[in-house]
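Example record for the data management plan.
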Amino acid sequence: MISFDLVIFDCDGTLVDSEWLCNFSTSEVLTAAGHPQYTPEYCLSTFIGAGQSMIWRTVAKESGQPLPANINQQFIDRVAANVDAMAKAAPGIEDVLSALSQNHKICVGSNGERPNVVGALKATGLLPFFSDDRIFTVEDVVHPKPAPDLYLHAAKQMGVAPDRCLVVEDSVAGATAGVAAGMKVFGYHGLAHDQVSQADKLKNIGVHIVSPDLKDLLSFIE
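Corresponding structural encoding:
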């Protein structure tokens, strides 16, 4: 077991089974903008873990056409419309958060937009675990994941040194950010479509432990 003072949770694909929600909503707004080739399935396989600004830049470059100036607000609106029907709490996460919050600081560090992150946590009943000042999102930094900035920002705001932080991540981009921040990383692949492949990808980044079960966090943390 390893001792930590702060556990930083990613949101989409970690706390909340929301990757389908986000990618379905991404596909909806891109289709409305004239790009139906970006199906939900394609978005899910291609953009997992990426921030929306990176997705919009990628689509604009691939299509050679500018996207609507309000594309991000359209995305936020679609997520808000879909969240209650599509978002689910990750299996076992309520028990994990209940146990951890007794003796550790916990917070959220997400590449998502703040309204979407808060909405997903609220829809899944997880919001009571995280006060407003313990939710850090893409709006808080210039460079989102895979840059380490968001996790370093979260640690600073929570008053904890990076080497005393544990990051819980499901994506390659997020895990890369955690490792680059000098933090230990727990790679969760329980919601991945190909769990074996995702576990291998996370290990190759330098993730310290991988598991398909979030409850394994409790045995990993002292």
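Summary line stored alongside the record: Residues 71-86 form the longest helix (16 residues).
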